[in-house]
Structure formats: structure tokens, C-alpha cells
Amino acid sequence: MYEALNHKPTMQDIYDLNCSVFLPSFEKLKKWKFIDANHALILRIIHFVFRVAAWMGRKDRKTETGFIMCVEPFVKTEGIHYRFDRCPIAEFAKAHHLLHLMPALCNGDYPAMEDLHATLIRKNTCANGDVCDYWIVGDKSEIAKTHPRKTDDAGYWYNKNL
Length: 162
Known about the structure:
Blueprint lengths: L10 H12 L1 H8 L8 H17 L11 E4 L8 E7 L1 H8 L6 H5 L2 H6 L3 E4 L10 E7 L3 H4 L4 E2 L5 E2 L4
């Protein structure tokens, strides 16, 4: 789209388009009042969903396509830790010199987690680092309060010290 429109969409346009495609399913979950990552059982269920997604993605390890996701064991007091070791979107952006657009795509992960009453904490994505690291905690947790969201010079949102 960016190439076809002669590089005219702004970062905000791309971010808005990404959110309009990516967020509706999370917004539906938000309408269910019980989907709240501040509750240990819900956080455990979210963790289970990520583990299933990682397990289903194992076949992608054998090919050059797809995401490779690793999920750490669940610890109620620590939230959910997982990472993507491979992101085909970031690989495409690198191969086609479009990395400058990736903040508009990667930053959409934050409002998705907010719809689950969760806070996403991360340092890097596959586009600006080696892995895309995710740490998900309830938005009312002390951990969330001590990791405010920041913006780096390239426009990526992050929470951990760089």
C-alpha cells in the first residue's frame, strides 16, 4: 500500500490502518466484562492461548515463513513472558527498506493489550532488535505502574530501559 500510494501515507495513517485491521477482535473481547488481565485466572487463560499459538506455530520453524514464538512458564505474580524470535513482517520490512514504517505496525500491540485490561511491557521488537519481547501484566499491577510507556527516537513504544 505504501509503495502504491507513492510513500504518501503518514505514520499515523499506517498506524490507524493497522489498528483498524488488528484491533476489532480485541475490542470484542473488551466488551466481555470478565476479560480482565488483573484476575489471575484470566491471565492464566491468556497465557494458555499464547502457548497454544506457539505450539501451533512450531511447523513454521521448519520453513522460512511465519512467526516463531516462545512462551515462558506461567508465574502468577510475574505475568506472561513470551517472545517472537522471527517476525515475517519485520523481515519483509528489512528486505524492502521499509523499517522506518515498523513503529506504526509494532505499536499496535499496546492498545490490543489495553483492551484486555493488560499492560504490555517490552524493550525491543524484531524490527529494532533481535527479538520481540513481550511481558504482559494486569494494568492495575505494581509492575505496570513501574514500567511506563516511552517513545524512542524512531517512534517505537517501549517500557524497559534501553
